[in-house]
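Incident log, structure service

09:12 report received: a user says their structure output differs between two submissions of the same chain.
09:20 pulled the input from the user's history:
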Amino acid sequence: MSKVPFVDLVAWHAPSRAEYQAAFAKILETGAFVGGPQVGEFEAAFASYCGAAHAVSVKTGTDALVLALRALGIGAGDEVIAPANSFFATAEAISLVGATPVLCDVDDATLLVDVDDAARRITPRTKCIVPVHLFGQLADIDRVRALGVRVLEDAAQAHGATRGKHRAGSCGELAGFSFYPTKNLGALGDGGAVVSNNRIIADRVRRLRTYGWSKPQYAELESGRCSRLDEIQAAVLSVKLKSLSRNVERRRRAAARYLAGLSGLPLVLPNEHLGCTHSYHLFVIRSKSRDALEAHLKSSGIGTARHYPWPVHQQPGLASGARIPEPLAVTEQLSTEILSLPMFASMSDAQVDRVVDAVSRFYR
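09:34 re-ran on a clean worker, output below:
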């Protein structure tokens, strides 16, 4: 019986192998390994794709959030609201700039930030809200912005997603992206970017990613860090950006096949909301029998994952520094039910059907 991996990076990259190799050869010929033309070309193309004025590439998605928060002037004594149902880097970035993560719950239907709950957690110290565009669907940025504090989008999982006329990265003042290899737009290693329509913010991120230097070089205006995207990763991302929209559509077709095949089973399936284009970085279902279903799929050769097995506020490394004014009931319930099924751009209909059949057999 054939296996279905959770993600197949080898198959995904195979069609573009010759383009990658040509790009690598060009870099080797120029010797411009850091700060060369590939980085600038990718930044311009990615900003244009997002519908934003500026994109500033950095070393990781976490660095994108850290430097974005610093560019907003957020630090010690400030509070930043973020959902607890997220990858821990969201809250970690807030802690790394010296601010206090204030964790809020998520909406039971969307699994995105519960705007009403976030509003209840605003205090005079609140300087920013970080809505997470989780799994490939955009949070309701208009409602978040109406709360009256600055907004930093965590778009690490939302490349290619839209809400109304806005594409991820263009909904607010600034956004942080990750280019980890499994993302819809992934490098062959780590990478990230801050996208913004504000030139002053973008310029500050550019300084902060290179030690805080201004021009001339070595003149440090403020303490920064070394967080530059290298030429090889920029070249890879430029190649992959050309097919991003096509690959998002392939993910959406796989998701539609999942939704049709799993309909009627005792599961909660992803819910694409009116006006949104879900980019399906992940295909996450909910099951009251999650653990048993997970074991059944594993024995059937189906790869799965949990996003996320422990809520942020229950992780020892972050919980002690976060403020959690009241229980996070939805997030805590989700952690016992959510299961991510295989999802990748090169996924075939036969692979989707194989997963659907295995899930269906569990409920017979």
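09:41 both user submissions now match this output. Likely a transient worker issue. Closing.
09:42 reviewer note: The first strand starts at residue 54 and ends at 58. The radius of gyration is 20 Å.
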